[in-house]
Design goal:
By secondary structure, the chain is mostly helical. Helices cover about 75% and strands about 5% of the residues. It contains 6 helices and 2 strands. It has a two-stranded parallel sheet. The longest helix has 25 residues. The chain is globular and about 45 Å long. The model has no long low-confidence stretch (mean pLDDT about 95).
């Protein structure tokens, strides 16, 4: 176990996490079937997103909420989807990292999952 402290660490975390995600029956279909993610484009965005969130590097340029609304229109992104995302994320952190940044990555992910879940639910209401 090591501290989560560099871009390389984030790349390991994100890559390990998404390997779990695509195999998961609860949320993998969003990535494989609905979005058909181009991993060569998506993964570097996620590295920058988490580098910005955890280290304040400001390398991420984008609006993650806006990207998810069109997906939510095709297939509802519900609380149990975000719970599974969070479970896989936490598990990936805990099996690879320790320390303050690892704890912060969990806390930040909980906040993100709660906010996104709420916003996706509200977007589906008439």
């Amino acid at each position: 176990m090591k501290n989560l402290e560099s871009r390389e660490d984030i790349e390991l975390l994100v890559n390990s996490f998404y390997r779990k995600v695509v195999e998961d029956e609860t949320i993998g279909f969003f990535f494989k079937d609905i979005v058909k993610v181009d991993w060569d484009k998506h993964l570097p965005k996620m590295y920058s997103f988490w580098e910005t969130i955890l280290f304040g590097q400001m390398s991420y340029k984008g609006n993650p909420m806006a990207v998810h609304f069109p997906i939510n229109e095709i297939k509802a992104m519900e609380k149990h989807h975000f719970a599974k995302w969070l479970e896989l994320w936490k598990h990936t952190i805990e099996e690879n990292f320790t320390g303050q940044n690892a704890s912060m990555a969990i806390t930040k992910s909980e906040n993100i999952a709660n906010l996104m879940s709420y916003k996706m639910e509200m977007a589906r209401k008439p």
